[in-house]
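Request: Mind sharing a record?
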Amino acid sequence: MGRLYERLIKQYLDTKQVLRLDDVWRCWTSDIIVDYCSERDYHCAEQARFRAFFTDAIVGVIEPVHHVTHSPWVIKLVNLLPKPTIKFLQPGIASVIESKKEMTNQIVNVKRRAHARATGKSRDTVFGALV
């Protein structure tokens, strides 16, 4: 909270910049939740314009979801394409691909920490307790 407060004072006090509190709140709570769940810190509250990576991923899914709803075979076809091609054809999907990769990394880390937690070398997290 201290880092967030300092940033708000430094960047927004006595300026004419618009501060979207929903973005600030989303980033701040995301940092807290991710830390409790997976013992990681994405520093979302420190990102430019308080833009969390998963927000871009959600927005990236909104447009193509219409096409996929009417043509579910498109997902199978798109999954056959190389990732750089997908990013070129649909730039909004790039953040979704990165988010999916990050979720995979989180799962691997949670499994790895389960052993460390059993030996007392790591603190318990929500996901760790579920494993």
